[in-house]
Amino acid sequence: MTGPVPDLADRAAACADRLLEADRVLLASHIDADGLTSAAIAAQALERATIPFETVFEKQLDEDAIADIAATDYDVILFTDFGSGQLDIIGEHEDAGAFTPIIADHHQPADRDTEFHLNPLLFGIDGASELSGAGASYVLARALADASEGNKPSVAADGGEANGGSRSSSERSSNGGDAAAAAKPATAPRADNRDLAALAVVGAVGDMQASGGELHGANEAIVEDGVEAGVLETGKDLALYGKQTRPLPKLLEYATDVHIPGISNDENGALRFLDGLDLELKRDGEWRRWSGLTNDEKQTVASALVKRAVSTGVPASKIDQLVSTAYVLPEEPVGTELRDASEFSTLLNATARYERADVGLGVCLGDRTGALERARKLLRNHRRNLSEGIDLVTREGVTHEEHLQWFHAGDEIRETIVGIVAGMAMGNEGISRSKPILAFAEKSAEGNAAEEEAGVKVSSRGTHNLVRQGLDLSVVMGEASRAVGGDGGGHDVAAGATVPEGTEDAFIERADEIVGEQLS
């Protein structure tokens, strides 16, 4: 079997064989939507191969986190959605005999390799736009199914004593309960693990890989797997966030990626637009949602929206962006966050960014009761914090350098969401979409604050148009942070770093120089 991504097949098979040799495995993963789906895919693949495991999450895989992992009594560590960029540190522990690393990642590797390293960048596949961390985990899951022949008895994904549970990095002494026995697969498990393709797509969408409105490259093969397995449906649809859950007026009011005068950011304007349509847009006094409209009704709204865009002077290239490819999970209920890949990924981001990765994992593993309700509560809080953050940045403004723009939020925006706020604020008054944006925030203390190294979190966001012009924020954040004694990395369109407190000005100066060189 070549698997969904033939170029990765041999390396994936080697990683799978090594996992099958292990008595038990520690699964360590990142905390964002891509990391959570990566962990969920790996967890279910390990479960189906009857490999005992335990799951831990790390907000940042730094020297201390890797040392903590090395101090466990696990001989095999599976890293998902991180590990490549920290291979120099991981390698030191590997050389010392602490553990054997198996890495399924898509980030830029450090200047070292290891035997069981599954990363698309090693095989000429773009990890920023063609395969996510969840995609790498999915490739591994498919190889694991082939290697184990899918004929072993199943065990619980969070496994009781045999498999362990899920723990966040701040809860190392106790098991997290939200991914536990209440979690049931959302879809019927398949021996070939193709049912896990839906989670891989959620991870890719959450990692902003749907450039131009659809997934590309190796991601397309995973989409095909999901469609064939019956866990995904695709089709052209209105490219607005919230089609499943937002009432129609809010769907249009908050549709700001393509700004339509008189509708976007205009509550009364959106209401007037809808009232002018000859459709039944309310039922029992409640506004309907896009997901509840018939195809003819959707066509009526979309046509009127395009007509309004044309009449108000929106450029044709922008109008084209009103339609994109939708990725739908058909086995999830209509009108819920879990049915749309974009909304699903946002729900997951809202869990781990508030130190509840266990809740997000529980949702991915099929818990549609306790974990889902907790996730929805976290999402409501997340949206409120994002809205307040965007208002703050728009009100206070940003500082414009020659090639980039930036702001320092201090402790007014959480470090875990400041990058999202920065990206969402682009295009607001005084905040350009023609320059990348950098955002500083104070790092939150974990554990004993006296033991924490002083540092400032920096997040950066660009646009796919800027990337096409040569922008690579992974290089910008990595080189500029190391120039001031910090460290960083990520993807071309979004990256992060930590820098010593007091070095922000020097960091900005160097980052501006690098961006200028890239875009010249």
TrEMBL record:
Molecular function GO terms recorded: exonuclease activity; nucleic acid binding
Domain DHH-CID: 240-323
Organism the protein comes from: Haloterrigena salifodinae
Domain DDH, first and last residues per copy: 25-142
Residues covered by region (Disordered): 150-189
InterPro entries: DDH_dom (IPR001667), DHH_CID (IPR048515), DHH_sf (IPR038763), DHHA1_dom (IPR003156), SSDNA_exonuclease_RecJ (IPR051673)
Protein name: DHH family phosphoesterase
Ranges of compositional bias, category Low complexity: 164-189
Coiled coil: none
Record's signal peptide: none
Domain DHHA1: 411-516
